[in-house]
Amino acid sequence: MAKLTSVIFDMDGTLADTEEVHRQAFNLAFDDFNLDWHWSRKEYEELLVISGGRERMRQYALDDEKFKMPPDLDEYVAGIHKLKTTHYARMLVEGHVKLRTGVRRIIDECREAGFRLAIATSSQLTNVDTLLENNLPSDWRSWFEIIASCDIVEAKKPSPAVYQYVMEQMNVSPKECLALEDTRNGFLSGQAAGIQTVITTHYFTQNNDFTGAPLVVDTLGEPDEAFQISNGDSELLAYIEANGIKHVSADLFQQVVAETQFHEANIHQCA
Fold it and tell me: Less crowded by CB within 10 Å, the N or C end of the chain?
């Protein structure tokens, strides 16, 4: 049985609850372009099934019968997205977004436990830099062996490409890895790459289908702020309850992988 050696973090929605700020930044950019588009929270939740801001806007434009199509839609969308990114970065710098509950603690615990860390995101590298520059110490880049973004891997989740790239660069197998995600597309990406994936939901993804995920919680929790479990393997949940664990720890990550591999082995033996 392979031992867990590496933890791979998604960024948007996982490291920080950025989706609401993304939504607001999109709407500000739409106003700047004199568009009558305004994405509500409910509408944005539905749009998140499409990975990537440019891809999201492009599909929205194609679906809007009242929208006057420009000569080059991709160039037009890229212009909106560039301005949206400017608004988003400003809001991050102004402190609108903090790391989610338990994220800094779990990063510290994983480093102390000797796990190798990486980031695999469909977002831009500039977004990763801006978020973590404003939430972690100045040497944070050295904490992560690989930071793979859409600037490096064009194929976006649910494609497994970004996870495959990270594993190739780190020279690790899927069985050695655990991914942290927040969306169905992220879960499907990790699953397609063969990586066990823990889900931390939020407003925009709490209704996603995460069937098959070894553990689905609302946050990574803190000792004084328990996470809520919405889905997970029954034996793993029994382990959590029996040990009185109220927050996800590095040890629990190891247990997630060990338990899941144990069940896979039993399934193969019964087949």
Answer: C
**How many Å apart are CA 57 and CA 79, to the nearest integer?**
11
Catalytic residue list: 10, 12
Shared domain for 177 and 82, answered yes or no, is no
Cα–Cα distance measured from residue 166 to residue 124, given in angstroms and rounded to the nearest whole number = 16
Are residue 185 and residue 147 in the same domain, yes or no?
A: yes
Q: Which domain holds residue 158?
A: 6-17+97-270
DSSP-based helix, strand, coil % in the chain, nearest 5: 45, 15, 40
Q: What's the CA gap between 42 and 224, in Å, rounded?
A: 31
Q: How many domains does the chain have?
A: 2
> Does the pTM of the predicted model rise above 0.70?
yes
Separation of alpha carbons 125 and 260, rounded Å = 32
More confident residue, 216 or 269: 216
- Of 93, 110, 144, the residue that ends a domain is 93
* pLDDT value of residue 237: 73
